[in-house]
Specification:
The complex is a heterodimer of chains A (249) and B (199). Chain A is 47% helix and 18% strand. Chain A has eight helices and six strands; from the N terminus they run H-H-H-H-H-H-E-H-E-E-E-E-E-H. Chain A is extended and about 65 Å long. The chains are: A alpha+beta (249), B mainly alpha (199). The complex binds zinc ion.
Chain lengths: 249, 199
Amino acid sequence: MVCESWKAKLDNCLDGELPEEEMRGFDAHVRNCPSCSADALARVQMKRAIQVAGKRYAPSAEFRKRMQQKIAAKPQRSFGLGWTLAAAAAVILVVGTLTSAYLGTRSGRDQVFSEIADLHVATLASSSPVDVISTDRHTVKPWFQGKIPFAFNLPELQNTEFSLLGARMTYLDQTPGAHLIYDMRKHHISVFVFQERSLPAGLDDNSLSPKQLPFNLETWSQGGLRYFVIGDASAADIDSLAKLFKAAS
Amino acid sequence: MVFFVGYGNKTLVGWFTLVCMPEESLPSESFEQLAMPHFERLYNFACWLTQDRQEAEDLVQETYAKALKGFSSFQPGTNFRAWIYKILRNAFLTSRTGLKATATVPLDLEGEEEALPVVKETPESILLQRSDGQIVQQALEQLPIAYREILLLCEVEEMSYQEISATLAIPMGTVMSRLSRARKALRGGLQQQFAKRMN
Ligand SMILES: [Zn+2]
């Protein structure tokens, strides 16, 4: 009975598409089950065989050269320079992101943080950073209804230095979530909200040195949701916004 | 510029190339930097779809022309690879060869499982793939396009199910069921190839 349930998931396991916990369970089972391990081995061999056989065709050097010339010669697209200041600031920061974050292998957590930083930067640099422009949390909250698979509360900002600029839907590795953009003394701060269960574990491990990201970032889990607050504002300011969110939830 | 060193996150680098430089001084590397790393693989994929090297070249060329033209519609921060593979695939499907291929075997094979040969899980398939890579290539070639492409995306391109879902514009559930059928079909094909050789 146990075997049947594993065998049904065998392909998904070997494709690395099961949640970590199930993968571990699978591992433990296969170690002690000759039938499942034989099946797994056969499928791994099949995967390899397809991989080898599938890499069959290589373009000629001449064709590569031709394509390269074609692409290089073409004019580039026109673009909108939205939020220029933010983009310019981000450029300086992105050098840091690129040089530090991509050296060596990154853990799942570092990967998530780096993707969050990318989302933050890319959005600010976009010509249309927000899908809904609103300073009113009462407009933003219902806007997300039906767009993301969860609901969350936005904090009241009266008597704070923060103001809400707008919001957009976002994806972290295809997981839908909410992206809110705040302004604080000309600093832009992003708040991301995702469902905790769709993200890798270990995000609360705080051993990340702040130097590894060119931004200040705070993350926590609350009510099944994972929050990220990120921006080039000071750590204290990031923390104040985080506290407002924690209090609102 | 200092940003165009060869770091891993091409989307980000390319994006900044576009956003942060005045238009007239845009370096021509930006699209190229995003797109060229996929060139060899796209060509390989195109060959598997078209089964013809000349047609594959045309298809890749068309893909790059379309991608360049539609580059402004590419959402930064989303998956460039899925985006360009999707363009290639759509270009193929509307090509003469593509239309012909999908006219005989529908692209959407869901619910046609009955038509597949029944496959026993025998060690034959393992033996033969070990002994001869050619036989796997032949079995892949014989597969309907829908099965061939999803296997290539999964095993050769090593795309995640989500990436495949984005590339083929099908839901995740369909990715899983189609992959499972494709694998079954390939095993069946391998056994046929194997039997043919034995005779
Ligand atoms: Zn078992």
